[in-house]
Specification:
The chain is built from 3 helices and 4 strands; from the N terminus they run E-H-E-E-H-E-H. By secondary structure, the protein is α+β, with helices and mostly antiparallel strands.
Length: 152
């Protein structure tokens, strides 16, 4: 059977459990049509490059599928009907990668860096306190006075 990688973007206001339920539904469609899911990766909520149907963020998921083309067509048809699915893309591949995808490897690498620094993942990395520097501002005594008049 042909092998496929399928990426799914779901609305940001649905919960992770609802996304897992949707994926289970699509898994059932694939299995009913003689295919199977080899791997499911939940990439979490990520920012979109541009708004899609008034959403700035989306739940991302990767599905590695071994199924006939009819099963893929039926799954995609049901995704087009669903209001919770913003976008999806299915790509036929020669072989499925059993290792974690690049997105999961990046997440693991980021988790390790955060643990080494001793901070939580939700910390934005800019120190805190709302500013980018995180520390106190330097004194301004050495800066010249600005003039906003019409001299010149």
């Amino acid at each position: 059977m042909p092998l496929y990688e399928h990426v799914l973007l779901a609305r940001q206001d649905v919960t992770s459990q609802q996304v897992e339920t949707m994926i289970d539904t699509y898994k059932g469609v694939i299995e009913q049509n003689g295919g199977r899911l080899e791997k499911i990766e939940m990439w979490g909520v990520k920012s979109l490059a541009y708004r899609i149907k008034k959403n700035r963020k989306a739940h991302f998921a990767l599905l590695n599928i071994d199924a006939p083309p009819a099963a893929i067509a039926e799954m995609e048809r049901q995704m087009q009907i669903s209001e919770d699915v913003l976008r999806f893309m299915t790509v036929r591949v020669e072989d499925l990668d059993s290792e974690p995808s690049a997105m999961m490897q990046k997440r693991d690498r980021d988790d390790r860096k955060d643990r080494e620094r001793g901070r939580r993942r939700d910390d934005d990395g800019f120190g805190g306190g709302g500013g980018f520097g995180g520390g106190e501002r330097p004194e301004r005594g050495d800066r010249p006075e600005r003039s906003f008049g019409g001299e010149g």
